[in-house]
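Standup notes
- DV: blocked on the single-chain target, sequence here:
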Amino acid sequence: MKDRSIVDRLGALSGAAFVVLVFIGNALSTDLGSGGNVSYSPGEQVVADLGKAAGSTTVAVGYTMELAGFVMFLVFVAYLYAMLRRGASLRSRSSSGRVP
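- DV (later): unblocked, structure below
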């Protein structure tokens, strides 16, 4: 564990941050306040809920958290790609008999 750099730790942390940010952001951004199932609400109620959500700071924070979560996902995928390439290059060196 001591041979891991700070970049490795941040890359792995970005995967956990993705999950947390997306789940919390989604919970905040979909809180329309109607209290019921939107699909069975009358059209006026749906429009009123969407209008309330458009002006809500909580919903804006939720959308921002979701966006930040997806950015963390891209960071995690880049980290995972680098780790897999590093493992593949080490595996090819060990199978060819060369010393790194």
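- Follow-up: The chain has one domain: 6-96.
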